[in-house]
Amino acid sequence: MHLDGAALRHNLSVARGSAPGSKVWAVIKADGYGHGMEWTAQSLADTADGFAVSCLEEAEVLREAGIGGPLLVLQGPRRESDWARCEALGLQPVLHDEAQLPALDAFRGRLPGLWIKLDTGMHRLGFAPLKAQVLFEQLRRHPAAVGGLHWMTHLACADRPEHPQNRAQLDAFSHAACELPGLCSYANSAAVISGLVAGGAPCDWIRPGIMLYGPSPIEAEEGPERGLQPVMTVTAPLIAVKTVPPGEHVGYGATWTARQATRAGVVAMGYADGYPRHAPSGTPVRVRGQVCPLIGRVSMDMLEVDLTGVPEARVGDPVTLWGRDLPVERVARAAGTIGYELLTRVAGRLQRVGG
Description:
This protein is α/β, with parallel strands linked by helices. The protein folds into two domains: 2-216, Alpha-Beta Barrel (TIM Barrel); 232-354, Lyase, Ornithine Decarboxylase, Chain A, domain 1 (Beta Barrel), CATH 2.40.37.10. The chain is built from twelve helices and 18 strands. The protein has helices at 5-18, 29-33, 37-44, 56-64, 82-89, 101-106, 132-139, 164-177, 189-194, 196-199, 328-334, 339-344; strands at residues 2-3, 23-27, 50-53, 71-73, 92-95, 114-117, 149-152, 184-185, 205-206, 232-244, 249-250, 256-257, 262-267, 284-287, 290-295, 303-306, 318-322, 353-354. The strands form three sheets. An eight-stranded parallel β-sheet has the order 8-7-6-5-4-3-2-9. Helix 4 (56-64) packs parallel to helix 5 (82-89). The termini are close together. 46% of the residues are buried.
């Protein structure tokens, strides 16, 4: 697996250019979307304004690795003792649920920033917008808010820019929070790249995630259409080449049958490496620059491909499963999933080479 740091930085510049005037929380949760959280943070240390992670444990890993600067913790504190951990590590936690308030009330420490999440229609995390004013009055003099009391929400349908829910959520957020003191943040990758930031409520901080790694967040698009470059290219070697006679089957369950003599290649990649087991025959891979279809069922450590169209392919040739010249979205669509899942499920036993 090759990781391209220059592509990562390029994609961040695309995000920044799509929302001029906004600062950038680079979202590197879930082990940097499968790319390695520390590697991603180090690669973006000089270009991102701050990093966003899911939980305190991820933030601790970054601080232990020497990553300084602003860190946003999207799920915020879960236990009473977490508030003190946020202060010790200089974190900016997100307050999103009534259950967090008693511990915050008892906490007298100071934070570099405290973000309040409003649920404007996604109905996942966040307070009702009508509570924004109440929370502001309750918390504006709290020591935890000495570094600033800020506001955020998350858009449910930004990957479909024309969906009416986007306007409804932006209006709800604007009316509830944007006239209160503090900074505002609502733009994920889809909102950034689709132009919702330009035509929406003020957005002091954007939160690009998936677009940093190359895929487009917009439904039915691929990253290169938006000027994005793949950061992860996953390759594995051909370890065997054979001819399957007509009428013979390939793989577990005999789910694929050769209609004619077929030159088949065995690739050292399987679901234990993060390749989706449910990927059907026909899912594309690339061999010597040519697209070849997957045949048969994916095994734990191997999969097979039809090499009939690449007669020059030999044992030892690298096979691209996704990445440069084969967008991960294309593979994900064939497998009935999304690029996010493929990237985040890449197994640790794959050797990572970063540039």
